[in-house]
Design brief:
Layout (H helix, E strand, L loop, with lengths): L5 E6 L3 H11 L5 E7 L2 H10 L4 E5 L7 H11 L4 E6 L4 H9 L5 E3 L4 H12 L9 H10 L4 H11 L4 H11 L4 H8 L3 H15 L4 H11 L2
Parallel strand pairs: 1-2, 1-3, 3-4, 4-5
Helix pairs in contact: 2-3, 7-11, 8-10, 8-11, 9-10
């Protein structure tokens, strides 16, 4: 992708929301909005037609809602990274979205700079865990988790080494590889290697799923 703009599709059934997001994104010369959609089915088609790198996907949409569209993206456009747009009132939907492989989520009142950071992070292959929004929502979800989920998470995490558990705990806090490296006095490349190993051992598709698992395990 070096030298090429990040190709983004915006999927939301509210034209004003789409227009606002477009205005923010096109302020960055390295981001190109290649398509828009007002429902989940059209979003999948737009992402495939325009070879999107990142899709900003609203949960509540007609024809095919965001949650139902996620498996379609994985089948039709597996290379596209999907960031779910949500509100605090949709906490349970957010959890389902993350478990279905989304690359993170943003609140609809996210600051412009954070929206751009999220798109850049997703395009780089990293899940975006907003320090303000994501951590707050995940913590609120974690308070209501069932004992069985926590027990399963602890069992999976037990397979990790002590250092891997330390890295996983920082993923649960929403830290980037660079921030985790500074915390643990490691290079960013070393942390990235640990993250890859952790994802493989835990059978997690991305950092978001690993972060949720860390929360469930009480790290």
């Amino acid at each position: 992708m070096a030298g090429q703009p990040i190709r983004v599709v915006i999927a939301d059934d509210e034209p004003l929301i789409r227009a606002g997001i477009r205005m923010i994104l096109i302020s960055d010369p390295e981001i190109e909005v290649v398509g828009e959609a007002a429902d989940g089915r059209a979003a999948v088609e737009a992402a495939r037609a325009h070879a999107a790198d990142v899709v900003l996907l609203d949960i509540q949409m007609p024809v095919l809602d965001g949650l139902s569209a996620l498996p379609e993206f994985r089948r039709a456009v597996p290379e596209a990274r999907v960031i779910v747009l949500t509100t605090f009132g949709e906490r349970e939907n957010v959890l389902r979205a993350l478990e279905h492989g989304s690359a993170g989520f943003l609140l609809k009142d996210t600051a412009p700079a954070e929206l751009i950071r999220a798109v850049r992070a997703a395009a780089a292959g990293d899940a975006y865990l907003s320090p303000a929004a994501t951590r707050h929502v995940v913590e609120r979800l974690a308070t209501g988790r069932e004992a069985a989920r926590a027990e399963e998470a602890r069992g999976r995490v037990a397979a990790l080494s002590e250092k891997e558990r330390e890295v996983l705990a920082l993923l649960g806090e929403g830290l980037s590889n660079a921030d985790a490296g500074r915390r643990l006095h490691m290079s960013e490349a070393t942390v990235k290697t640990y993250v890859s190993r952790i994802l493989a051992k835990l059978d997690c598709e991305n950092r978001v799923q690993a972060a949720l698992l860390a929360r469930d395990a009480g790290l």
